[in-house]
């Protein structure tokens, strides 16, 4: 999928930018609840998801009383 074909916003996710949206879509992640099932490091490892996207997702999760899953030990 080209980032040109990726929507500017997906589900209830905050606007992140097309590369991050494309990476999340390819992983089947379309909601904040699904984001909360993943550690931030796992999302950050996806090509297209950078520190800015993680900060935006973290803020959106916090607004709903959610957070990223714990990093594996």
Record keyword descriptors for this entry.
single chain; 73 residues; mainly alpha; globular
Structural features, described:
- This protein is an all-alpha fold.
- It has four helices and no strands.
- The protein has helices at about 20-25, 30-35, 40-45, 50-65.
- The longest helix is centred in the C-terminal third of the chain and has 13 residues, at about 50-65.
- The protein is globular.
- The protein starts with 17 loop residues before the first helix and ends in a 10-residue tail after the last helix.
- The model has no long low-confidence stretch (mean pLDDT about 90).
Instruction: Give the H and E element order.
Output: HHHH
Largest sheet: none
Radius of gyration over all CA atoms, rounded: 11 Å
Overall number of strands: 0
Summed up, what is this model?
By secondary structure, the protein is mainly alpha-helical.
Describe the secondary-structure layout.
Layout: H1 18-26, H2 32-35, H3 40-44, H4 51-63
